[in-house]
Amino acid sequence: MGDIVIKEFCTVERDGHLTIVTMNRPEVMNSLHYEADLELDGVWTEFAGDDEQWVAIVTGAGERAFSTGNDLKAHAQRGVRHFPPGGFAGLSTRFDLDKPVIAAVNGIAMGGGFELSLACDIVIAAENAFFALSEPRVGLAALAGGVQYLPRAIGLPRAMGILLTGRRVPAKEGFDLGFVTALAPAGQALAEARRWAAQLLECSPLSLRATKQVARKTMLGEDFEQKVLAAREFPAAKRLRSSEDYVEGPRAFAEKRKPEWKNK
User: Fold this and answer.
1) In terms of residue numbers, what domain contains 15?
2) CB contact at 8 A, 116 and 30
3) Is residue 86 part of a domain?
4) Which of 20, 88, 145, 188 could form a disulfide with 184 if both were Cys (CB 3.0 to 4.6 A apart)?
5) CATH number of the CATH domain containing 69
6) pTM of this prediction?
7) 112 close to 191: Cβ distance less than 8 angstroms
8) Are 144 and 67 in contact (CB under 8 A)?
9) Considering only CA atoms, which of 34, 262, 39, 239 is closest in space to residue 22?
10) Which residues, at least 6 apart from 202, have a Cβ–Cβ distance to it below 8 Å?
């Protein structure tokens, strides 16, 4: 056990050259609002700038959820969702971080939680975990990186089968599809992620950073960042964000009722 700092919405443990970031809102299944994103954005900025921290793990508090994504009750109250520069959890659109990050998915990873795992370099999922980009079911869209990362990870047809339905994908299927690196027994995702981190820490940190940078730039493309950030300006995305449905979905979730879509 290393040094642990308890913040308002997360905890940060530094164990030698390893940083473990735990989203700590188990009462709402580690869903996040802007304030939590902002706090985590600062955590990742600090990690990026600390030469003594070489590898990170991100996980969720409790046994039920990695993160269920956007805090829809907060969204319903505010009517809009803003993100800091690093995106959801301060990481989903942080494109300049060359240090390896491992996602230890200990339970549900929905919406932004799934997008967060896709933004990581290695994904360790508990066998009882599942993934979903459920935004269309609540009048939103996976514009924090999900619609760009997932097709690159598993191909467009299979990705669209997940993106357009919002269906739940069990961890084993995620492994078979290719967006999960390795499976762990229930309750052991973090322990398995630590074992993977130990292997990374046997390597030169400069070699890891060079490998990640070249692999991501080659696979995703030099213009990937611009494509992700420009997604909100696509005509259909702009129409969605100014629509009645964009407000209705989170409100219906907060009120525990079925949404009434207006298509306007």
Assistant:
1) 3-185+204-224
2) no
3) yes
4) 188
5) 3.90.226.10
6) 0.94
7) no
8) no
9) 39
10) none
Q: Where are the alpha helices (DSSP H) in the chain?
A: 34-49, 72-78, 112-119, 146-154, 156-163, 171-177, 189-201, 205-220, 224-230, 235-241, 244-254
User: What is the per-residue pLDDT across 99-131, written as a single tens digit (0 to 9) for each?
Assistant: 999 999 999 999 999 999 999 999 999 999 999
As given in the structure block, the two tokens for residue 23 are 């989203």
- By annotation, the residues acting in catalysis are 115, 135
250 domain residue, yes or no: no
Spatial contact of 103 and 140, defined as CB atoms under 8 Å apart:
no
- Tell whether 17 is covered by a domain: yes
CA distance 83 to 145: 12
* 162: its two tokens: 């997940």
Quick one: three-class SS letters along 193-257? HHHHHHHHHCCCHHHHHHHHHHHHHHHHCCCHHHHHHHHHHCHHHHHHHCCHHHHHHHHHHHCCC
Q: Residue 118 phi/psi, 5° resolution?
A: -65, -30
Q: Count how many residues are written for the chain.
A: 264
**53: in domain:** yes
Residues 45-100 have pLDDT tens digits of: 999 999 999 999 999 999 899 999 999 888 888 877 788 999 999 999 999 999 99
